[in-house]
From TrEMBL:
Protein name: Succinate semialdehyde dehydrogenase [NAD(P)+] Sad
Family of this protein: Belongs to the aldehyde dehydrogenase family.
GO MF annotations, alphabetized: aldehyde dehydrogenase [NAD(P)+] activity; succinate-semialdehyde dehydrogenase (NAD+) activity
Source organism of the structure: Jannaschia rubra
The entry's keywords: NADP, Oxidoreductase
Keyword NADP: yes
Gene3D superfamilies recorded: Aldehyde Dehydrogenase, Chain A, domain 1 (3.40.605.10), Aldehyde Dehydrogenase, Chain A, domain 2 (3.40.309.10)
EC number assigned by the record: 1.2.1.16
UniProt key word Glycosyltransferase: no
Residue span, Aldehyde dehydrogenase domain: 4-454
A Pfam family assignment: Aldedh
Length: 463
């Protein structure tokens, strides 16, 4: 077993920090300490828990620049994107504090011979396994909702952003969260299985690839523990016959390049009807070609590095295989000769089934443009995927687009005439191989609770 984790700046290739992995005994003790903190936390009134969550949001705002700079050093995010990430996390804390007590309040219902009470009780310690692309947001998304519900939180963060996980723990405790209630586990994958097996762990949530989701979901199922899985995707953005091309091109560039192209709900497949295909390709390629790579700490940089060399190399291999099978790179498509895990903004056309650019998730700044015959064919192609997390429709007829989104698009989140990542008051999650369960919008607060039925009978009657 490797005994240490070393974090590397993907832009400069410099070593940042080295961390020692916990022993199995230390990890087990950490779970026990989190459970003991939970036993007190679950007794706190919802309003008190909400107050501490509000304070966490304020501390995030106060620590915004320091945290943003750390995330950019660890994973290569553009510094502006890192700052925006902290803003989103602050908004999540505010939404949860504002809405949590009401969402979790007991409900009374009429029952024969008495009164029924629906009570939302916390389950216990919830284990989160999170990726590197949003070092703060991925954690806040599940942790804040579950802290509001009264649960304890364990985090196994991606190795390359270990520092961000520890920073967030310290930040929460500065804001008044009890010690050990949010616990960072510095462990490897084998040790992670032991955490899932621990009787004190009552639920497991993972954000990652569908391969990782199968592994973790199966392990948790063996222990009869509930999971929430937010997995990968190959999101389709559909440009219909009556789309405003200026709007579509700008939004589709943003949808592909945001966060250096490393977002589960980035636009990845751009399905354009024959009427608009050639004009879209010309305009889109021009804008993508103009995006320059550079220092992610510079506000003027358009595209930073990918998070690790191996991720860049995997993306390059997917592009090469797609080209070998008939796709064409009209922009980019080659690893640059420079220091850092950089890959250029790339546009692939002639994308067909059987190519990675069509079938798989390309997790980086590579756009796959697919020609459709008409609107119906575009929707067919959009749904021709094992994934279903997000997507988009560009169409001047809002009623038509809304009807397509509601009735035909087999995916969890759909943007009409624009691009969105996540909004605190709207549910987040997908279908098919993109996972199950929902976060945000109040839904995440009830994913890991015991929904209790309490029957209060009058005069000894029974239902």
């Amino acid at each position: 077993m490797t005994s240490q984790i070393t974090t590397i700046n993907p832009a400069t290739e410099e070593t940042l920090e080295t961390y020692t992995l916990m022993t199995n005994d230390e990890a087990r003790d950490a779970v026990q300490a989190c459970h003991e903190a939970f036993l007190d936390w679950r007794q706190r009134p919802a309003e008190e828990r909400a107050g501490i969550i509000r304070a966490i949001g304020k501390e995030l705002a106060n620590s915004k620049e320091e945290f943003a700079q750390l995330m950019t050093r660890e994973v290569g995010k553009l510094i502006g994107d890192s700052r925006d990430e902290i803003d989103l996390c602050t908004q999540i804390c505010e939404f949860t504090a504002d809405n949590g007590p009401k969402a979790l309040a007991e409900e009374e219902r009429e029952i024969p011979g008495g009164k029924g009470v629906v009570h939302y009780a916390p389950l216990g310690v919830i284990y989160g396994i999170q990726p590197w692309n949003f070092p703060c947001y991925q954690v806040v998304r599940y942790a804040i909702a579950n802290l509001m519900a009264g649960n304890g939180i364990l985090l196994k963060h991606a190795e390359n952003c270990t520092g961000s996980g520890l920073f967030l723990r310290d930040l929460m405790e500065r804001a008044g969260l009890p010690a050990n209630l949010f616990t960072v586990l510095i462990i490897d994958h084998d040790q992670s299985d032991l955490i899932i097996e621990n009787d004190l762990v009552r639920g497991v949530t993972l954000t990652g690839s569908d391969t990782a989701g199968r592994t973790v979901g199966q392990k948790a199922a063996e222990q009869l523990k509930k999971t929430v899985l937010e997995l990968g995707s190959n999101d389709a953005y559909i440009v219909l016959d009556d789309a405003d091309l200026d709007v579509a091109v700008d939004a589709c560039v943003a949808a592909r390049i945001y966060n250096n192209g490393q977002t589960c709900v980035n636009g990845k497949r751009f399905i354009v009807t024959a009427k608009n295909h050639d004009a879209f390709v010309e305009r889109y390629a021009e804008k993508m070609k103009a995006i320059g790579m550079g220092d992610p700490t510079d506000d003027a940089t358009g595209l930073g590095p990918m998070a690790r060399d191996d991720l860049r190399d995997k993306l390059a291999a997917q592009v090469d295989e797609s080209v070998e099978k008939g796709a064409r790179a009209v922009v980019g498509g080659e690893v640059p000769d420079r220091k850092g895990a950089y890959y250029p903004a790339t546009v692939l056309v002639d994308v067909k089934p059987g190519q990675p650019a069509y079938d798989d998730e390309l997790f980086g700044p590579v756009a796959s443009i697919i020609r459709a015959e008409d609107d119906a064919d575009a929707m067919r192609i959009a749904n021709d995927s094992r994934y279903g997390l997000g997507g988009g429709i560009f169409c001047r007829d809002e009623d038509h687009a809304r009807k397509l989104a509601a009735e035909q698009f087999d995916t969890g989140m759909i943007s009409l005439n624009g691009f969105n990542i996540a909004i605190p008051n709207m549910p987040f999650g997908g279908v098919k191989n993109s996972g199950y369960g929902r976060e945000h919008g109040g839904f995440g607060m009830k994913e890991f609770v015991n929904v209790k039925s309490i029957y209060i009978m009058e005069n000894g009657s029974k239902s």
